[in-house]
Specification:
With about 475 residues, the protein is mostly helical. The protein is built from 19 helices and four strands. This is TBC1 domain family member 22B-like.
Length: about 475
């Protein structure tokens, strides 16, 4: 996902040094005592209601080392705490400042994690610092005052430590800080504060030159392929996020058209592929939020000067380029990168939830029939648009590891409806998966998806033989 100056610092660290997000997996022995079986059954009962389906491969045993001061150590308190430990760790509305440790034992392997930093979400601790933050759904971790202070400290440094910023952003960035956070995570903005503004000015001027050279030319100077590509983009722009009125503004669609056409001309290996239009929309909303206040539905791009619109378009163009640099084969001929991810998703679902996998296979449902669009549009079309930017905080924090982690997110997303899917026949299943009931989702449901994805990634990613056919 990185290319160019500034992207190399931390962009590919997701699989190495991120101890706050990666749990060490090592061999462990499984006890067969009756007490262990009782604890497993109790834990499983607590978790089943929360995760709504078969989400744990093998036996799961939870223990937590916990030594708070001035807390009763009675048997009743200990038992209640032990049974609720895992639910609290996955509940975005729960937070504890006490240091703690969680152990999972899965088929002989032990997974340790210190305080599940990435999968917890902390509720707001006071007044949000901006109107945008105030609109954030209660329980979204990005509005927590302590985390806002950490973001402020990192972003105000002379040289931003990208790995620390990634760790913070994984669980959500404050909305009004998001533009700067995203530009830094993608390597578009320099981590060095002294160089940042100058570099952004140069890149924005370069984008204007590209638009002048490739887009603002007479139709007679375009090749037939370029004419057809521009025509397809012009058709797709009005179809982009049709349920959000902001994107129906003619000037917004023109901005999308300029960004997409310029990108496609400068990336001839793929050119324009349907679905890339969806990938511009989060960038457009985030970078416009620096200039437009209030609810997005009330925004009017005509309130902005041409210079501001050009700066926003340039930021969208370069950030789209950085994003797609990390997944180039997703949009080349036959899109082999996406096909590879669909295959991995099928294998992962088979390992996590064998009954669902078997039922889908018996009904003749192919994962390509629904999951191809998920990967092609990065799930943008599957969840309410107001949650997309939160999801993308995690995407961009993953850096070069995004394609790999996206498989786990899609598995968690699919298995949200594990029980439902097992009751459907082929035609019903196809219709259900193409029109998923996510319209009323809040941050809570999205955080649950990310929590499960994180947990499964920790379980399986360093044990690829688990997913071998």
């Amino acid at each position: 996902m990185r290319s160019g100056a500034g992207a190399g610092e931390g962009a590919g660290d997701g699989g190495n040094g991120d101890e706050g997000r990666r749990r060490e997996i090592h061999a462990g022995s499984s006890s067969g005592s009756p007490n262990l079986e009782w604890r497993f059954n109790q834990t499983l009962k607590s978790v089943q209601g929360l995760l709504k389906g078969r989400t744990f491969p093998g036996k799961v045993m939870l223990t937590r080392k916990y030594e708070p001061s001035n807390v009763s150590t009675s048997h009743e308190h200990s038992e209640e705490f032990e049974k609720s430990t895992f639910e609290n760790d996955l509940d975005p509305s729960y937070h504890s400042d006490n240091s703690s440790e969680v152990e999972f034992q899965i088929s002989g392997n032990t997974v340790r994690n210190s305080s599940l930093q990435k999968s917890q979400s902390i509720p707001p601790k006071g007044k949000c610092l901006s109107p945008d933050a105030q609109q954030s759904v209660s329980g979204a971790r990005a509005t927590d005052s302590a985390r806002v202070a950490k973001f402020t400290k990192e972003l105000s440094a002379n040289s931003v430590v990208l790995e620390k910023l990634r760790e913070l952003a994984w669980s959500g960035a404050p909305p009004y800080m998001r533009p700067n956070v995203w530009r830094l995570l993608l390597g578009y903005a320099s981590p060095n504060s002294d160089r940042r503004e100058g570099a952004l000015r140069r890149k924005r001027l370069e984008y204007l030159d590209c638009v002048s050279q490739y887009y603002e030319i007479p139709q007679s100077e375009r090749s037939d392929d370029e004419i057809n590509m521009l025509r397809q983009i012009a058709i797709d722009c009005p179809r982009t996020v049709p349920d959000v009125t902001f994107f129906q503004q003619e000037q917004v669609q023109k901005s999308l058209e300029r960004i997409l056409y310029t990108w496609a001309i400068r990336h001839p290996a793929s050119g324009y592929v349907q679905g890339i239009n969806d990938l511009v929309t989060p960038f457009l909303i985030v970078f416009l939020s620096e200039y437009l206040d209030g609810n997005m539905e009330n925004w009017s791009i005509s309130d902005l000067s041409g210079e501001v619109i050009s700066c926003v378009e340039a930021d969208c163009y370069w950030c789209l380029s950085k994003l797609l640099d990390g997944m180039q084969d997703h949009y080349t001929f036959a899109q082999p990168g996406i096909q590879r991810l669909v295959f991995k998703l099928k294998e992962l679902v088979r390992r996590i939830d064998e009954p669902v996998s078997r039922h889908m296979e018996e009904q003749g449902l192919e994962f390509l029939q629904f999951a191809f669009r998920w990967f092609n549009c990065l799930l943008n079309r599957e969840i309410p648009f107001h949650l997309v930017t939160r999801l993308w905080d995690t995407y961009l924090a993953e850096g070069d590891s995004l394609p790999d982690f996206l498989v786990y997110i899609c598995a968690s997303f699919l298995l949200t409806w594990s029980d439902k899917l097992q009751k459907l026949e082929f035609q019903e299943m196809v219709m259900f998966l193409q029109h998923l009931p996510t319209e009323n989702w809040t941050h809570h449901e999205l955080e649950m998806v990310l929590s499960r994805a994180y947990m499964w990634h920790a379980m399986f990613n360093r044990s690829p033989s688990h997913l071998a056919s």
